[in-house]
Write a structure and sequence with these properties.
five-stranded mixed β-sheet; alpha/beta; 2 domains; single chain; D-Maltodextrin-Binding Protein, domain 2; 329 residues; 16% strand
Length: 329
Amino acid sequence: MSRRHFLAATALLAACPLAVSAQTQAQPQGKVTVAGWSKPISEITNLLVEPDKGFFKAQGVELAYLPGAGGGDAIRNLLSGQADVAFTDPASFFLALDKGEKLVAIYDIYPRNVFNVVSLKSANITKPADLKGKKIGVYSLSSGTRQNLLVMLHQAGLKESDVTIVVTGLLNFAPLLQGQVDATAATDTGLAVGQRKGIGEVNVMQVSDYLNVSSDLFVVRESVYTDKKELLKAFLKGYRNSAAWMIAQPDEAATLAMKYAIDGTNRDINLEVIKLRNASAMSSGGASALGSFDLDALQKGADAFHALGLVTRQIKVSDVVDTSLLPAR
C-alpha cells in the first residue's frame, strides 16, 4: 500500500465516531444482515470485529453475518429474505438480473479482479488454451472462481464443456497437490495461503489480464433499497469506516482475526491476506474513494458475461447501480 493510500485511510479512520460515547449516542437505525459468499474468514476481518470495534454500532446499525458458499449463495439468501445485503460477485449479480430479479448494486467492495487460475509447474499450463481437456478446481459452482474461470476459457475460444470442473472447496489446494485436478481457480488470498502452506512452484494466470472487473459488490433488492435508504446509508458508512480501519491498522486486524476468523490461527498469514484484501479494496482514488464504482469497467464485465452466454440479455449497468447511498468522502 502506498504512503498516500495509508495516510488517506488514517485520515478517514480518524474521522470515524468510534468512541463509546459516540456509539451510545448514535440514532438507532435497525438491523442489517449481510449474506456473505464465504464463511467468516480472515479477509473479511473488518466485518467480523464488530463486537470489539463497533463500526456499525456507531452508526446505529446492528450487524449480522450470514455465511455462504459462493456469490450465488449470497444472492439466494438475499432473495429468500434471510438477508438485507448480499456480499457477492458481479457475475452472480448479473445472472440474477438476467432472471428478472430486481436488484441494485450500492457499493463496490473490491474494485480489482482478484481471481486467478493456478497449476503446478510440472503441468506446463501457461496460457488459457492449455486448459482444454483439463480438470479444474473451483470453490463451488456458485462462486466467482467458476465464473471467472469461464472468462479465461472464453479468451481461448473454449467453453465450460471443454474442461471438467471439480468442486474443491474454499482455499483448498490439496486436490491440486494430490493430482485430482490439473489446475484450480482461486483468488489472490487463496494463493497466498496455499503458498504459505507449501504448494511449491506454480504457474499463475491472472484473470485481470483479460478482464479487470470488480471482484465483489454490495447488492440489495429494489424493495429494500426503496424502503430502507437511511438504514443502508448508515450500514455503508459503518462498512467504509471498518474498511478504512483495516487499511490503516493491518497489524491490529491480523491479531483480531485470530479471535474471529475460522482460518485465522496464523497471525502472519492473516496479515498477508489482509494486506492483499486492503489493496483490492482501493480503486485509483485510494482509500478516500472506498466503495466508488468504475461503471465503464463494470459494463465491460457485463458485456463479457453476455458474450460468454452466461447472461442472455445485455445489461446496462448504469440502470442497476446506485451511488447515492455512498458515504461522503
